Amino acid sequence: MDFSLAWQKLHQIGRDLMLALPNIVFGLIVFLGFLLLARGVRALVQRITRSRKSSHNLPLLLSRLAYVATLILGVLVTVTIVLPGFTPASLVSALGVGGIAIGFAFKDIFQNFLAGILLLFTEPFRIGDQIKYKDFEGTVEDIQTRATSIKTYDGRRVIIPNAELFTNAVTVNTAYDKRRLQYDVGIGYGDDIARARELMLEAMRAVPGVLQDPAPEALVMDLAASSVNIRARWWVDPPRQADILDAQDKVLEAIKNKLAENGFDLPFPTRQILFHDQTETTDGDRRRQREGWPAGSGDVPVARAAAYGSEPLENTPQ
């Protein structure tokens, strides 16, 4: 076999590579310079925009955009140095040919990137906020170009794509300075409702961390099967999860102790079972049968056996 043609091709490629080696080295040096420049531009933009107090995420957004723009410029300059025949027109032509394929391949990436920019610009939540999305709840650690990372209350990290957070409902627990908490407390039907509400309000007002404005409330919410349910509502500041759990622990303890000290019953669900043997003459007559309730001292229905003997009556239950 004649390998002379292949050898000539390899030899030509080697010569072209040696001729282009200075351009490649110089292009890499230029790209490293642009990389350092991009970091410097990012830091400068953050320093300039940090003085704007109305937006927390704006410095982060502008600095990232400046960083990406500087890197793109560095890539174009590097490619121009390494490939002298490269022009922006050739880049546009190449993108025009493969634009559709690239769009389909990187659709999710572009979607999450744009959603990340919009999240940083519109600020529905900020880094450090506590949010809830579907089954995930925690503190926002970072809003990146592709996804947002949150730290759950039990110490785990959850990565959520930006497009999902931008297009779906997200609960921001720390959007406002105050947050209202509530809990239903049941008292017995024989207890004084007005006095119970008064004691619950006293207990809530005495707990440190419970705000006096807005004032705590105690509202009757339900006449349940075994209790009268009164809803205790109170406000806390700040509304972070640790403060909420601490306030709820103290409020419930104070309410329980206050009601118990004043003789209030805190009933638990009960059920009464009535046994009915269906042996009375009134059985089958819905207007007269007792359904298992005690006979009392009034007129007690006669037992079926005593009234009719051993012979069953016609049209009576067997």
Automatic annotation (TrEMBL):
InterPro entries: LSM_dom_sf (IPR010920), MS_channel_C (IPR049278), MscS_archaea/bacteria_type (IPR045275), MscS_beta-dom_sf (IPR023408), MscS_channel_2nd (IPR006685), MscS_channel_C_sf (IPR011066), MscS_channel_CS (IPR006686), MscS_channel_TM-2 (IPR011014)
Residues annotated as transmembrane: 20-41, 61-83, 89-106
Main subcellular location: membrane
Pfam families: MS_channel_2nd (PF00924), MS_channel_3rd (PF21082)
Keyword line: Cell membrane, Membrane, Transmembrane, Transmembrane helix
Cellular component terms (Gene Ontology): plasma membrane
Domain Mechanosensitive ion channel MscS: 108-171
Region (Disordered), start-end ranges: 276-302
One MF annotation (Gene Ontology) recorded for this entry: mechanosensitive monoatomic ion channel activity
Membrane topology: Multi-pass membrane protein
Domain of life, per lineage: Bacteria
Basic and acidic residues: bias regions: 277-291
Mechanosensitive ion channel MscS C-terminal domain residues: 183-264
Keyword Transport: no
Subcellular location(s) of the protein: Cell membrane
PANTHER family for this protein: SMALL-CONDUCTANCE MECHANOSENSITIVE CHANNEL
Family: Belongs to the MscS (TC 1.A.23) family.
The protein's name in its UniProt record: Mechanosensitive ion channel
Organism: Hymenobacter psychrotolerans DSM 18569
